[in-house]
Amino acid sequence: MASVTNGNPATNIKSLQAIQTEVQGSNRIALSVDCVIFGFDENKLKVLLIRSDLKKYQGLWSLLGDLVAAKEDIHDAAYRILKERTGLDDVYLEQVHTFGSVTRHPAGRVVTVAYCSLINVQHHKLKILDNELHWHDVQNVAGLAFDHQEIFEACYRWLQKRIQEHPLGFNLLPKKFSLRDLQNLYEAILDTKMDRRNFRKKFFAMDFLIDIDEMEQDVPHRPGKLYKFNFDKYAKKKKKWVGIDF
Amino acid sequence: MASVTNGNPATNIKSLQAIQTEVQGSNRIALSVDCVIFGFDENKLKVLLIRSDLKKYQGLWSLLGDLVAAKEDIHDAAYRILKERTGLDDVYLEQVHTFGSVTRHPAGRVVTVAYCSLINVQHHKLKILDNELHWHDVQNVAGLAFDHQEIFEACYRWLQKRIQEHPLGFNLLPKKFSLRDLQNLYEAILDTKMDRRNFRKKFFAMDFLIDIDEMEQDVPHRPGKLYKFNFDKYAKKKKKWVGIDF
DNA sequence: AAAATAATGTGTTTATTTTACACATTAAAA
DNA sequence: TTTTAATGTGTAAAATAAACACATTATTTT
Q1: Is pLDDT above 90 for A79?
Q2: Pair B234, B208: CB distance under 8 Å
Q3: Are strands B209-215 and B110-118 parallel, antiparallel or unpaired?
Q4: For residues B22 and A107, what is the distance between their CA atoms, to the nearest angstrom?
Q5: Structure pTM?
């Protein structure tokens, strides 16, 4: 019980200067951002990996990351990494989790903030000029450098959950897509099969798909209709409670 | 497009030493943990706040937090703060989000990792000996120091969502509770009213409540039956997909 | 040109889940 | 003993989800 009161900072009001001393003291830590960049290509969910630049992990793949600069917002750092690696600057990006084990980095204490990014591979395809960058099938990701396997898996689980409750999957598709594309995307991410009729019914009922009155081109079968997702309409709707279930 | 290849670290394999230089370089950052500690008392959801120890924010309330030590896991730091402030060391604790705006702390760059903690106020009650600590009704939390209002609100939203999908609410209740207690808890957290019969039906159908064959004591009305939550059984069950809905 | 192929596009029926709703029971209090 | 205020339970209706089959269309093959 003594611990409640002993050493309680609230009992001594501190000047800004006193705090500054602490903040600039010896317990500062390197902070990095790691991006788990997902893409969707040939009906498979992919993740963009880079060969580790660290001798210890030579040959192993790792996530795209970098240290956060002293005067850089962590979101900005994530955007910077994406921009540097993919050339894209208008991408879906969301923070997932922070990994702060003391020993996670061999070079010393580096706490890393994991971000999940979803990009349209078709759009991005032209920009990968770097042999050290590669799109990996998510099913075959293993043995990443550092603790990146754990980070990747956390982000993949996050995506699987998130995609069922929020319309972020559309960031992986071209602006115009067929319902078959959309279903393939969900099936790939969730690693499951769905009934085509019920899937369509579900999305039509949500009423966020805009029929743009165009058809697929250059497909070796009857072309399907193309749709856009109505992000504006979605942004305006207020969500309802789903209910207790676990 | 030049940005894709220019300055790409993967093109130069680095020694551990080279990385160490970077990691120990000038861009290290102070890292803190802030705990949003929820409690449930008199059928209201509460949050434990402390008076800011910073002159600039004198008189304002703030979350319980501290700097993470150079060789301290961030989870350990969160547990340490809880232990120091509440005396409790066996509490529910989960990371929620990391806040990394450059200007969020007046004393310099401090990135903070927010944790949500749920504790049993009855158990904890005896241990608050500190006038600077206070349980606030969540409805009346406003004008916190730093960016703590934003952090608090993010954690509250997180809790509202999380409690519908995971059995973490039980950490706010005594080990033995009545179904009325449980419903009051959900109603307080979600700020809504529920049908008593449907609520019971829902929880009985989940089949995680253990009827311990005891009744409430010292209540001024017909006592209700007491239950425990079967955490073991819950841990063993494998979750099913919920389905697409947004 | 006709037939075969392989995909798109649609509707109904059933089962399950959720919601709405009312009364008997029990212990405490009056 | 009566009153009161809560606990405890069941059913019917509505909404949602799941299972399921066939006609249509464009392409490809014959």
Answers
A1: yes
A2: yes
A3: unpaired
A4: 9
A5: 0.93
